[in-house]
């Protein structure tokens, strides 16, 4: 994963354009929220809610690196058992936008004043990946029959209900800039799909043959800070 992120950043730097993209300012903060959907051993999903705060900095006009803090709930049931995970998650991530590979004019500030909303959106479609930690807070009610079945198949019912574990988030989304100015927009609406892969199969207190993972679909707003040099 480290090699993948490094390769994305290196490729982006090689394709640097002297333009301003998502924002004309070097740093942005964002907040958002939306539903969570878990894929765990207790497979009957109960959609819950999460919220997040982001801080992102532009490395090039179309490549950003940032940190993401998330608070949410995962919940599910099955086999006469239930769980609820009131979690925290933190990660560092990088995103590459489609505008990095588009033939945009050098004077992006002028282009931004003239271009359509569609072209602004297209230039700010992105993919990204990161690495971080997740803090569990699990409440579970596992039936004796299901517990016996899990153990007989080589699994276990975890007693680590509030520990930290390593996660890998993968992001796909779009920033929709709005508000006109001489050097570009200062606000953006963000729509993001984040799929988080865990490494220890313990989102639901059941450790079995497959790693747990979950999805988080969010709608948010970003605000750019500081004047450009």
Task: Describe this protein's structure.
The protein contains four helices and twelve strands. It is elongated and about 65 Å long. The strands form two sheets. An eight-stranded antiparallel β-barrel has the order 1-3-4-5-6-9-10-12. It is α+β, with helices and mostly antiparallel strands and 229 residues long. It starts with a helix and ends with a strand.
Termini distance? 33 Å
Mean model confidence by pLDDT: 84
Which consecutive residue ranges, at least 5 long each, have pLDDT under 50?
Answer: 1-20
Lateral strand order in the biggest sheet? 1-3-4-5-6-9-10-12
Structural class: alpha+beta
Measured by DSSP, the beta-strand proportion falls in over 45%
Number of strands: 12
Helical content (DSSP H or I, runs of 4+)? 10-25%
* Major beta sheet summary: 8 strands, antiparallel, barrel
Q: Helix and strand string, N-terminal first?
A: HEEEEEHHEEHEEEEE
As a whole number of angstroms, the C-alpha radius of gyration is 20 Å
- Backbone shape: elongated
Total DSSP helices = 4
Label this structure with key terms:
52% strand; elongated; alpha+beta; 229 residues; disordered N terminus; two-stranded antiparallel ribbon
How do the helices and strands line up, and which of them pair or pack?
Elements: H1 2-14, E1 27-39, E2 44-45, E3 48-60, E4 63-78, E5 81-97, H2 108-114, H3 117-123, E6 125-135, E7 138-141, H4 144-152, E8 156-157, E9 164-178, E10 187-198, E11 206-207, E12 213-225
Antiparallel strand pairs: 1-3, 1-12, 2-4, 3-4, 4-5, 5-6, 5-7, 6-9, 8-11, 9-10, 10-12
């Amino acid at each position: 994963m480290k090699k993948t992120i490094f390769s994305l950043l290196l490729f982006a730097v090689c394709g640097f354009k002297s333009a301003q993209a998502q924002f004309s300012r070097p740093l942005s903060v964002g907040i958002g929220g939306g539903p969570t959907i878990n894929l765990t051993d207790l497979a009957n999903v109960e959609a819950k809610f999460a919220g997040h705060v982001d801080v992102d900095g532009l490395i090039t006009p179309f490549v950003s690196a940032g940190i993401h803090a998330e608070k949410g709930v995962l919940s599910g049931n099955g086999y006469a058992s239930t769980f609820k995970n009131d979690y925290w998650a933190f990660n560092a991530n990088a995103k590459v936008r489609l505008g990095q590979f588009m033939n945009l004019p050098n004077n992006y500030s002028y282009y931004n004043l003239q271009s359509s909303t569609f072209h602004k959106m297209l230039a700010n479609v992105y993919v990204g990946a990161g690495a971080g930690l997740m803090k569990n807070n699990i409440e579970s009610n596992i039936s004796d029959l299901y517990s016996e079945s899990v153990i007989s198949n080589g699994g276990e019912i975890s007693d680590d209900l509030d520990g930290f574990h390593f996660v890998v988030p993968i992001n796909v989304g779009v920033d929709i800039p709005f508000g006109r100015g001489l050097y570009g927009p200062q606000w953006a609406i963000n729509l993001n799909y984040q799929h988080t892969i865990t490494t220890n199969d313990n989102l639901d207190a059941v450790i079995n043959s497959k790693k747990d993972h979950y999805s988080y679909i969010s709608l948010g707003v970003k605000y750019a800070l500081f004047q450009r040099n």
